[in-house]
Amino acid sequence: MKSYTELLKQINKATDNANIMVDELMENHTSFRVGGPADILVTPNDVLEVQALIKICKKYKVNYFLIGKGSNLLVKDGGIRGVVIKLCNLNKIEVEGNEITAQSGASLYDVTIAALDNGLKGIEFANGIPGSIGGAAAMNAGAYNGEMSMVLDSMLAIDNNGELLTIEKDEMELSYRSSAVLKYGYTVISVTLKLEVGDKAVIKARMDDLAKKRSDKQPLEYASAGSTFKRPEGHYASVLIQDSNLKGTHVGDAEVSVKHSGFIINKKSASATDILDLIKLVQDEVQEKFGVRLDTEVKIWGEDKEPFEGAASCEAGSTSEIGSSSY
């Protein structure tokens, strides 16, 4: 089995050395502001580097994990064994007619502003959703009666062999918070949105209205990963949590928001363990009271305890080849 030292040599050849970090705390890369160290974190500059990194991880049988802005992600206190590939430098946005093509690392905010500037409507719902367009497409993100399935036209992705493929709308298998990307472990490189021509003033008013609703109803002043739980069939997670009298319940500095019970927040210095314990408490209480099991919308990665001190001198991690994504 090859050591991480050899793996790092290969990564150095594939990407800019300045974009490689060893034992990097994931709390610096997630909106929850928690998470132990990733063995290796790489920020590639283009699609060729992403392809090369995936192929290297496959060759050395090292787990790899893809992130954008880390807005839908909870990393455990022990951190991540393997390679984290951060796509934030792939952020180019192009507009042609009524179509926007955006690389996966572009923020949803920037994409919606590009739409506004070009008088294109249909993506206003995403203006306040944290995270990147690649992750939004992969998980079919949505809010306020809109979701990505309404505007997605195609995606450029990398398959599990590191090769590029185009996924057309009828191949995306879009459903509630899921898609073919998540189902098959693909990596989104860019997405093309098909929008409609609209009035800039009307589009801006809609975006401003949704921004105010978010500010009024969501705990944006605290670190979080957005909505913690998926919507269970026939119910709303926030209503079940509120009716279980769990608003304000806390474990350490992790708290069920009093402003919106669908959010678990990091009030100051919560650990990932605090948040996980609170998630379980909420799940158990709702299950007992209503017979409904809440599944997490937030992705949970990593280990509870760090098994070794440093990545550069350790042996390559799991022998299973896993590609996971969260944006």
TrEMBL record:
One Pfam family here: MurB_C
Cofactor: FAD
Keyword Cell inner membrane: no
Top-rank taxon: Bacteria
Catalytic class of the enzyme: oxidoreductase
GO molecular function: UDP-N-acetylmuramate dehydrogenase activity
UniProt-annotated location(s): Cytoplasm
Active-site feature positions: 177, 227, 297
Family, per entry: Belongs to the MurB family.
Role played: Cell wall formation.
Name assigned to this protein: UDP-N-acetylenolpyruvoylglucosamine reductase
Organism: Clostridium frigoris
